Fold this sequence. Notes:
Strand 1, helix 2 and strand 2 (40-44) form a beta-alpha-beta unit. This protein is of the alpha/beta class. It has ten helices and nine strands. It has one domain: Aldolase class I (TIM Barrel), CATH 3.20.20.70. The chain has a four-stranded parallel β-sheet. Helix 2 crosses helix 10 (194-211). It is globular, with a radius of gyration of 16 Å.
Amino acid sequence: MKNFSWDLFNALPVVGIIRNLPTADMIRIATCYADAGMTTIEITLNTPGALETITVLNAELGERLNIGAGTVCSLEELDLALNAGAGFIVTPVINEAVIRKCVENKISIFPGAYTPSEIYHAWSLGAEMIKVFPATRLGVEYIKDVLAPLNKIKLMPTGGVSLENCEEYFKAGASGVGMGSNLFPKEMILAKDWIKLEAHFKDYVDLVKKMKGLV
């Protein structure tokens, strides 16, 4: 297992969330992802073969990408993810036992929270960044409003974030964003058009770097 690299993440603060694809396709996708300049990818555990995928991606791309496990909801799932080599953990909910174990073992964890109280609670347990989920129901202004009193907390809105609106989330103060289907278009993946997919990823890289002043 390679520990989560904040340097890699901060170079391109986007977590790409990928699910329900065969391991072979995920390797090709992740290679395009890294080649385009993306740095952090999350494999959801409710994907068939997710643990194998995490292990294989670590072997193939572990020096170039942060490779983590998402949809981790229990200690059992946490152990499976860590044994597979996940370098960071993402949850859709607050499970105190999962957060505490990650903090104790110096594993980066980004738990999902919705309300200001949930966000603060997850952060107070030691989480380094909080996934605000589902962000699509809350909107950009919500991130700005929450960060007014809770400005020390890193927020990562997830759900409904796209090329069209991610700039607004960063302007609102988000430390990163989580992207799923908007970042991994089904039509390109089903067609196995890896050249077009890499160009698609590069559009995100160029936009995010420009808006974050990383170029």
